[in-house]
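Fresh eyes needed here. Have a critical look at this protein's tokenised backbone.
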Amino acid sequence: MAPAFAWRFAAALALVPLLAAPAAAAEPAAAAPQAGVAALTDEDFEATVGGGLEHPWFVKFYAPWCGHCKALAPVWEELAGKLKGSVGVVSVDCTVARWTAEEYDIGGFPILKLIAGGRVYEFSGKRTLVALEAFATGGYKEAEGEVLPKDRLAWDKAARTAYAYLTRYMLQLGVVAFVALVAWICWSADAASEMDMEKRRKFEGKMAEYERRLAEKRKAEVVAQRASGGSGASGGPEEEKKND
């Protein structure tokens, strides 16, 4: 009964990633670039950026605790002012917008990616105002770029999604594995205990039978010895008379 409950509990936990995936929403027209740095989340990233089809979007993927991200913040604010009206400059807190960060393969901080014309271009130069502005205003065209996450091949999407779930739900998967292991150990222990008890009962039965037979044998030997000793005692006086 207990192992069956454990397996059902483990199966329920395994469904958590499927239930946690955000639903795909319709993509309205992309918003126009505004002054300042907008903070985007999983809920409004696609609706705001829109694949960069109308104009480019320069995105900073960061984490609040990252020292390099903090150092880049004033430069990023200044860049937003310089590119106002031509390139949207936004930020994504990856500790909040985890789904978007996983979709864009963010593995460190800060990561700067420009989205334009349905492709993604990653900035890899020095994070100075001049270099960032040059990249955003046309320098990115010299790079090959990658397709948007939504345009990836099916197998690539599946592999990336599986990896994202694995890293995102590692704790839940660990709990599932632990529960399954405990259930298996409990079941195995119960089965082993029953087998051990049966073997022990058989062994004890054989020992009891052996002791019973040994006791009967010793009793027979004692009776035989007493009978032999009694005959010798009764013949003693007759022998003495013959000798006299």
